[in-house]
């Protein structure tokens, strides 16, 4: 695999049928990785062949959320990704020493993402999800270059400040000519015992991002789901069993979103 030739990324080859979704957010902590993990597990539970690239190199959290404790094996110079809940997963967290921070510059980040795409034995995937770092930094640009056909999924909270930065992240798509497939609003409300919704982070952020991206990009960017705050979602992230597939799991709306994205 040495030499000057560019590594081959299977997802960009003619005839490749994998749907590639890059999950992005303006800020950290809005639930981007949780949404990625739950979507992946929900799609795999629907019988799809799913892969996840944890492209949040500095802030990797996918291994914990999907409960992967194994290290990848190697076969014929390729990396074989571990399976978790039927999902093939690769993360820098599998290659660094426990709890060591990743301190890399742009070119190394680019190379890591490139290797995750070209040197991992993905097989035939129906769906590949990439958990991007928040914002519009090096990795986001690398992914746009490496996977120009990846569709962007924007995660935001209902809060105005979060929505504004999420919008900017979505607008990068117009520069990179990538399609924004939709918006997922997370932490939309806390369900109350009396059935009402307590809107802890305000309301309207997801709708606002959807509308402004629709106007700016000139095509419909739907609000795909509004997910409640739910302790089971947080517990699922910590225990490695995403709530979307847990028994007695949280009644999150992400499975319908998974259905829409899988279609
Ligand atoms: P990001 O990837 O945007 O940084 P995470 O997915 O890591 O965000 O989520 C941040 C924290 O919030 C995590 O501890 C996660 O378990 C928790 N969390 C995310 N979404 C919800 C939710 N809907 N209900 C409860 N906890 C959530």
TrEMBL record:
In the C-terminal section; belongs to the Mrp/NBP35 ATP-binding proteins family. GO terms for biological process: iron-sulfur cluster assembly. The keyword Signal does not apply. Homodimer. The chain holds residues 96 to 358 of 384 of the full protein. ATP binds at residues 26-33. This is Iron-sulfur cluster carrier protein. GO terms for molecular function: 4 iron, 4 sulfur cluster binding; ATP binding; ATP hydrolysis activity; ATP-dependent FeS chaperone activity; metal ion binding. The keyword Cell inner membrane does not apply. Keywords: ATP-binding, Hydrolase, Iron, Iron-sulfur, Metal-binding, Nucleotide-binding. Binds and transfers iron-sulfur (Fe-S) clusters to target apoproteins. Can hydrolyze ATP.
């Amino acid at each position: 695999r040495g030499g000057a030739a560019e590594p081959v990324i299977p997802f960009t080859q003619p005839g490749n049928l994998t749907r590639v979704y890059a999950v992005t957010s303006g800020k950290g902590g809005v639930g981007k990785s949780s949404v990625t993990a739950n979507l992946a597990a929900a799609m795999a539970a629907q019988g799809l062949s799913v892969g996840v690239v944890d492209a949040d190199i500095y802030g990797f959290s996918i291994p914990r959320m999907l409960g992967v404790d194994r290290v990848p094996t190697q076969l014929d110079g390729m990396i074989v990704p571990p399976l978790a809940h039927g999902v093939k997963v690769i993360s820098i967290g599998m290659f660094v020493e426990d709890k060591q921070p990743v301190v890399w510059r742009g070119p190394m980040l680019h190379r890591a993402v490139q290797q995750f795409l070209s040197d991992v034995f993905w097989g035939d995937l129906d769906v590949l999800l990439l958990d991007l770092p928040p914002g519009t930094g090096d990795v986001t640009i690398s992914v746009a270059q490496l996977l120009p056909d990846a569709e962007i999924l924007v995660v935001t909270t209902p809060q105005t400040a979060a929505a504004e930065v999420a919008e900017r992240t979505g607008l990068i798509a117009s520069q990179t000519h990538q399609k924004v497939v939709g918006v997922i609003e997370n932490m939309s409300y806390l369900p109350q015992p009396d059935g009402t919704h307590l809107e802890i982070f305000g309301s309207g952020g997801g709708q606002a991002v959807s509308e402004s991206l629709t106007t700016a990009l000139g095509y419909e960017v739907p609000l795909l789901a509004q997910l409640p705050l739910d302790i089971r979602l947080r517990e699922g992230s910590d225990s490695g069993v995403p709530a979307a597939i847990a028994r007695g799991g949280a009644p999150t709306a992400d499975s319908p979103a998974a259905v829409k994205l899988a279609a």
